[in-house]
Amino acid sequence: MSFTPPTAEQRFLLDHIVGIADLAAHERFAAATPDLVDAIVEGAGAFAAGEYAPLNRAGDEIGAVWNDGVVTMPDGFRQAYQAFVANGWGSISAPEAFGGQGLPNVLATVVMEDLGTANMGFSLVNMLTPAAIEALIQHGTDAQRADWLPKLVTGEWNGTMNLTEPQAGSDVGALKTRATPAEDGSWRIAGTKIFITFGEHDLTDNIVHLVLARTPGAPEGTRGISLFIVPKIRLDGTPNDVRCVSIEHKLGIHASPTCVMAYGDKGDCHGWLIGAENGGMRAMFTMMNNARLNVGLQGVQIAERARQQAAAYARERVQGGQPIVAYPDVRRMLLRMAALTQAARALVYYAGGQLDRAHLGDGDAQARLDLLTPLAKAYGTDVGCEVSSLGVQVHGGMGYIEETGAAQHFRDARIAPIYEGTNGIQAADLVGRKLGLEGGAVFAALIADIRADAVPELAVLVDAVERAGATLATTSAEDRLAGSYPFLTMLSVATCGWLMARQARAAEAADADPAFLALKTAAARFYLERIVPEAVGLEAGATGGAALLYAVDAEALG
Amino acid sequence: MSFTPPTAEQRFLLDHIVGIADLAAHERFAAATPDLVDAIVEGAGAFAAGEYAPLNRAGDEIGAVWNDGVVTMPDGFRQAYQAFVANGWGSISAPEAFGGQGLPNVLATVVMEDLGTANMGFSLVNMLTPAAIEALIQHGTDAQRADWLPKLVTGEWNGTMNLTEPQAGSDVGALKTRATPAEDGSWRIAGTKIFITFGEHDLTDNIVHLVLARTPGAPEGTRGISLFIVPKIRLDGTPNDVRCVSIEHKLGIHASPTCVMAYGDKGDCHGWLIGAENGGMRAMFTMMNNARLNVGLQGVQIAERARQQAAAYARERVQGGQPIVAYPDVRRMLLRMAALTQAARALVYYAGGQLDRAHLGDGDAQARLDLLTPLAKAYGTDVGCEVSSLGVQVHGGMGYIEETGAAQHFRDARIAPIYEGTNGIQAADLVGRKLGLEGGAVFAALIADIRADAVPELAVLVDAVERAGATLATTSAEDRLAGSYPFLTMLSVATCGWLMARQARAAEAADADPAFLALKTAAARFYLERIVPEAVGLEAGATGGAALLYAVDAEALG
Asked: Which terminus of chain B has a smaller tally of CB atoms within 10 A, N or C?
């Protein structure tokens, strides 16, 4: 299946939800002229459809192959990646001082969306490098930035995030990888990391691992973690003592090698501290917040791909003398898929716009971004799973046959609610940290903005969200966590409903393709009239408390 | 992962939801004494856990293998199947006249549940034979019953259902397989069937295909379809002209060969008509209704397996100094999984009890069964998908690694909403045929029964279901179909809520394992207090009509 880049949709969001013109009014982003924005939106889509999409099936069927520490990508991947580098698609939002184009980050979001819609597994190599760049910009020394950033910005080298260890998953503080001072001012790294995305591969000449480790005498838990640059090849050209021990056999994203990485097996793995000793968690959150928005975007990517494929199949497949798209329940599924995909995309792009405003020094935008990041990650990825499952369903029996490709999307989508902090961790972040930001004022401001637009279909849900938020703000930590996931979904749907309503209003006055506007309007109505009411009933779970969950012993849970 | 047969749960349902004692009070089922019921519940669970469960991973990883028309199952499958035959597990509910035990069908449901929980793909060979038996009992001649039933009843031969052709999926009436009279009173069959479960394998010495075909001059569509017995080996011992051309490469249930079957490639495939010429649809519905309850049961099976595995993992996996089962959101997922699994099981068992009452001549029970069959199939399988997805989530990153096994359940579960009539077809059946049965009296009687139990947590949902049912009964066919799926879910949740409330009341007075009763009570509360409210919001979709779905051209859907 081919894919058609959703350029009209992206352009519409940039105009009406992100406010790209407002961003370009700032000197820093003055280069983001309408023509350049058009060129990026069109160019990224064409590049992704032309270079990445044709490799999607091979990425799934052949996938990354490990042999004695070497990971080989299927034919064509290296060339496509080199074309990505040559075209400068990785450098959109990086600072000009390091070879970047200095454009708003939300334009990099457009590029990332297209790459991932074309080939989700492959695009992970493009997704984590920006996180490494951001960590170095914010926490590295001038010398480190000069050494590492230029080739990360072009994509000649890729970056990885090394958090997880076998005993330390969601509990990052339990990690055991050690860093001890070496004679030359570097650190000797020793330990094993798991679940390292693109930890080894043959796409680039070097790989820049950012590795969390403990220095001697470091405090227990997350306060004793430091972040290190640990390259595959050192700057002097010598190989570092870094080895990919194996890759995982996964449900999906087979084009993304998920590596077990051994650091310092021969006692000669060198790393360089980024930021302060024991300051690794802060640097890690810099990376994670960047990555979390991009994982939310993955939900959008896979939903878009699944949606397009299902719609195309429904127009072709004839049953009962007409294409199945003619049947009401098939249309219900397709419109639901469109509505959910558009809603999740609006949420991620809106959050992306806040990120750029935050970079311009807007503190309110930073606060709203902080509140919305767990929503974008968790709701975006839940949407990816639901839409890709509906995509299988629209295909009927053919959806269950691997050759059709619908099943690949269903498998690929399932990772996104898990990595970069499970969606449960996102929900805990929402109710534990974000809901109470500035004494609840950040949450209240979002609710006030939603109310200010006076969307009648949202009134009941927004009341319920506000009640639930008030309950959670005053209850015990356990009750808050017990209701966290339903609350996250409610607030996400309310926010998405608001963004969909705003788009529907913008569509009334917009000068765009009539077919695009018709779908935009119908999707917004479907979301507001049929999906929003479904979220109202989540209030019971959001406010029901923890006691019922503990009414049964762990052993009796089966 | 091992699995523990849910014997206490099954026994509780038989007592309190099925009313097994009432069934045994009838002469026909007098053999179903409490001791025999206990022996079946315990014995089937032990058999499934001992013989079928250990083959589940091999079934997935190796699966059925096709080579030049021959399908080979992995090591151990033939022995396990032979043990199934030797133990008589296939003969529970078949008539004594044909070697069966003449027991209530709901006891065969217990056996089928355990086999499928142990090994869903493998158990499909056991699932379709009863459908063939039922078709022969209801529509075959005495001679046909004498010829074919004994070895189908023991399981020495298995039965298959041959409906689908490449152009004829949900639209069965479009099939093209031909049957022409042969000189010896049989029919010559010619055509290709796809998606034939266990159409070829090495478990049995013969395979009895029930094949839908058209006779010369038959009317168009479903009124011109006849059903034929087409054995792999004819009764005289000669091979029939039947060949498995290939098997599908599927997302899951790899232990179940999904066959493309060629009938009559050499012009020498003989079949024998079952029932009247052009009466095939009636016979097919006999098979399908039987199979639909069993597919609903598959949702329960895979949910149970996923649930047990997730609960065990959550007790073992330590993060932050305690097993993850201690965390509220993990507990929320596990209790939700338990509540959904129990609810779906209650629905399927309750429907199964109605089937046995119908066999005793109870017309009201037949009518209720007709109403509940699409609910049991669709909601049961939706639950299987949701619970197996939650099972992946509880495992975190390990859930995405195939070796863990959680992903297999997620893949296996996804077929059930598709086959035996997609869930969309079930929803269409509900609003198109079942809602209006006896002028709506069948639906009204169910609602009245639910109301009679006066469960406060159900009041709002039942009101909404009743309103939606009234709307759908009087609206256009298109609007009815547009709302069919949300309506099916609402009605399913209301019915399940009722059955869960009845169980919670029974648990108050029951003499059973305290841990079992504690989970039963908590699951019922979770279902009533937190899941039931979620279904209320579906009213908007159920009654919103079709106009919005057609507001966008098919082309503009993307």
From this structure: N
Q: Is A420 a catalytic residue?
A: yes
Contacts of B331 in chain A (CB under 8 A): 482, 546, 549-550, 557
Name chain A contacts of B463, Cβ cutoff 8 Å: none
pLDDT band at B170 (very low <50, low <70, confident <90, very high): confident
Q: Which residue in B315, B526, B539 is closest to A554 by CB distance?
A: B315
Question: What fold does the segment set B159-279 form as a domain?
Answer: Butyryl-CoA Dehydrogenase, subunit A; domain 2 (2.40.110)
Query: Cα distance from A391 to chain B (closest Cα, Å)?
Result: 12
Alpha-carbon span B19 to A404, nearest angstrom = 45
Question: How many Å lie between the alpha carbon of A201 and the closest alpha carbon of chain B?
Answer: 19
Nearest CA in chain A to B325: A554
**pLDDT tens digits, B24-65:** 999 999 999 999 999 999 999 999 999 999 999 999 999 999
Class of domain A159-281: mainly beta
Domain A7-156 matches domain A159-281 at the CATH topology level: no
Nearest to B351, CA basis, from B299, B279, B282, B283? B299
CB contacts, 8 Å: A549 with chain B: 328, 331-332, 335
**Confidence band of A1 (pLDDT split at 50, 70, 90):** low
Note if the pTM is more than 0.95.
yes
Domain boundaries of chain A, sorted by first residue: 7-156, 159-281, 422-551
**CB proximity list for B193: less than 8 A, separation 6 or greater:** B162, B163, B164, B165, B177, B199, B211, B260, B261, B263
Kindly calculate the radius of gyration of chain B based on its CA atoms and give it in whole angstroms: 23
Q: Do the interacting molecules here have an ipTM over 0.95?
A: yes
**Identified catalytic residue from B420, B457, B466, B539:** B420
* pLDDT tens column, A73-122: 999 999 999 999 999 999 999 999 999 999 999 999 999 999 999 999 99
Whole-number pLDDT of residue A266: 97
- A7-156, superfamily in CATH? Acyl-CoA dehydrogenase/oxidase, N-terminal domain (1.10.540.10)
**H/E run at residue A261:** strand A258-263
Choose the catalytic residue: A51, A165, A304, A420.
A420
> Are B332 and A170 in contact (CB < 8 Å)?
no
Q: How far apart are CA A44 and CA A467, in angstroms?
A: 43
Distance, CA of B87 to chain centre: 23
| Distance in angstroms (rounded) separating the CA atoms of residues B417 and B429 | 14
Give the number of other CB atoms < 10 A from CB of residue A30: 11
